[in-house]
Protein 1
Amino acid sequence: MYQRPELPELVFTDPDGNAIPYGHRWGVDGPPERTYSRTRHPERFAPLIEVADALIDHLERTYDVDVRYTEGLPEDAPDTVRSAEQGQVRIARAATLLPRHDGCAPLVIAETTFPSIVVAMGAAGEARSPACGCDACDESLEDSAELLERIVLSVVEGRFQERYSWTEGIEITIGGGTAATYSREPRHAADKERVDALKQSQRERHGERWLPWPPRRDDAEGAWEAEAEPLRLWTRQEREAAIEAALERIRRRLRSA
């Protein structure tokens, strides 16, 4: 079972020496204009790296998945990870997790020098923790850790789904129930590489949903079996073919009698 590492109680102060209550800084009037696109203490997010490492270790021990670690940006990194490198921010290291069943969504979990964690999911899904990181958004370390865990565990539990259509563009759902989040990116605004990757993925999966990751098998020979297809009514042609096959078996028995 996954267990979050203990988060340190970090205290940061403003120019007057007062402790900054991250997550509860702004009232009904909202943040000041000067706080947008500015992050005074990005180091408060550094413990997210330990949370990401704990998640990766949990997935590697629990699920039937291959894990590849790289320093810096992986050569085959998806565009959703490459786009995290902007200005002085770079990918410091990454873990690529490939389930051993084609029906399961792959994951890339990467650490940036911000510091932050970037997650690429499936063919076109992307998320970051913290989601923004600027002072105006006022994200706390604990909320960012919860966000990262929800995203990663939603993928492995089959609660991350993505879909592309000509009319709706890219649609992505993360989580389930009342905690689910839904986003839509119109076709004309979506990145072409992401669209192409998702269309290719849908063709390979024949439009099927992403499945939950299979549990790890201790025996090397053991292979995970996909869930049985749901029962459905036969078509008229299938019924006639089954009847004809049964009649042919009866004829062969009578001829050999």
Note: The chain has one domain: 33-216.
Protein 2
Amino acid sequence: MALQAPRYITYIPLTDLPPDPANPKKHELERIIASIKDHGFISTPVVDERTGLTIDGHGRRSALIEMQVRGEPAPGGLLVDDDGGWLVPVTRGWASENDHQAHAVLILLNRLQEAGGWYPAPLAAILEELATSDADLFDSLAYTDDEMESLLRQVDPEKLPQGTEDDEDSTRPAGDDFDSGLGDSGDNERTGTLCCPACGHLFTPGQ
């Protein structure tokens, strides 16, 4: 006897993906569009089977509509029908029990993405690698200099892959100012230049 998957992905016309009018989440539309153009359509929206409305993916839906309006080509991950309409992959199979649960899940799915935070050392290692080897990918993450400086001040050099117990700065506590590359001195000609606390490499994000 064949098993029936309780959740499955199917392609539907973008015009058949209605939003929930109660959705309270704001979106940075341009960043979502840039992400889709850079990497394709990765994360599928979710449809509530009871209401037929989008329960997760309102920002991605709006981004796709805006891309269509601008005359952009269909991004990777979508299909195009014979009339040129965009077909979007969506997750099906979940149904809310009532409007209260639907609205709670609508908020919960966004709240869960906000929760947890990041492990500073692994994050800093990846960002430093991207900043020095692929500026375009780093720029697509939209980290500001202030955010990078704040992150690097949390990192213990020994916790980064490049760090060793013999690093001369390894005894300095996480959060210390790891070099003038992070400082805000008016005499520092490297303003905007960041210093990797593991290897001492100076780099300017996006360059």
Note: The two ends are 58 Å apart (CA to CA).
Protein 3
Amino acid sequence: MPHALIVDDEPDVVGWMSEVVQAEGYTVATADSLRNARAQLVRQTPDVLLTDLQLPDGRGTDLVRDLESPAQTEVVVITGHASVDSAIEAVRIGASDYLIKPVDVERLRAILRRQPQTTELKSEIGELREELRRVGRFGHMFGDSPPMQSLYDKLSRVAPTAATVLLTGESGTGKELAARTIHDLSRRKKFPFLAINCGAISPNLIESELFGHARGSFTGADREHRGFFEQAKGGTVFLDEVTEMPLDLQVKLLRVLETGTFTRVGTTEPIASDVRIIAATNRSPERAVSEGKFREDLYHRLNVFPITLPPLRERGTDIEMLAQQFLRELNRTEGTHKTFSADALARLYEMTWPGNVRELKNYVQRAYILADNVVEGGEPTQSAPIAAEDQSGLIVVRVGTPLEEVERRVTMATLEQCGGVKRTAARILGISLKTLYNRLEAYAEKDRQREAEATGPMPLVEDHEIAAAGEREGRGPARKH
């Protein structure tokens, strides 16, 4: 039977927490000070240590040093004052989670129910280390260069904790793969991992996507909708391009981080949030703060454990390892046995890869298509996204092309180059975000009219589908009928 030690100098808190912990199948010991807690540790090493941060004779975190086998005990810190400093301290001393007074009973139960042994997680990390040594893979990521080894160390350290993580790095470096690796090495791995791109969803829809909405809360809300924070209960929510989130929504996200609750659109009833947040951005969050586009208080809340992913150009021989891996995947899918020539591998190191791993994957796919049996180093490079910036972002337009079509092609090409982040594309184009959405809707409407003329009436679709349709149609020349 698992054993828990509860350390707190408030008798009422100790009393009700003991009842909750016992109901979850634990034996319980209690203490009201560091001295009494140390005496309990001598009698029996707990599987779970629930300790108040502030005790009459010191700090509860000091007990971690007294554990005979720290790897065998889950440490949950309880604090009456939620702050970034207390969260960071809890992570540094190896806490798996922390609770804010008054402690939410359901959150406490969720922690107790999802607790696998730390030794189990350490064993999994050890297995990943062995796989890294054999095939250069760690979780969802490939590469064994020194920068990646350092990255894996950070992922391994933060994954078993409850810390909020902020991933930064250039586009295409694998931030979502890093987030998935953190989730898979955490105590939340048996629960959902949900990712949302904060810059690719209409500002009118993103709040509903995150927090859900009540029936009738706005036009078209014909049923109750559970947002990501409810769907991912017990798991992880990955907020990609978080600096592109509208400012009014940043305030609501900050409230979730501070109170552990959220409300659906159209309601006032708070709902407890039991998710871990991992955020990511490919731009400097500090610059976004200085430009007034990202709240400083939210930045500090998310930046509890920052991790920067290295660009591909700094990863040395990982470039060749990744290229070979992508080629193996293509050979396996297509039933072929194509290989790189020595010249082709040498050419890999001549490019600076501004699009990073995503660009390399596209390069390999193009090279694979052009090759018969051996991928040579000349022709595929000409078809790949060239590193030189002056050769990118070009659009060829015939003389006499209608201005409306020119505008469409420039708009959609800019949006694609920005990775679908509409806020960034609007800024580059020198138009408002609302104008960009209006353009996308107009493009989609015109396409529907063309299709209706050829195939008959089309069914109505939602606003977000209209935007998605506009993006899909805008990536190439306009369709001819």
Note: The longest strand covers residues 74-79.
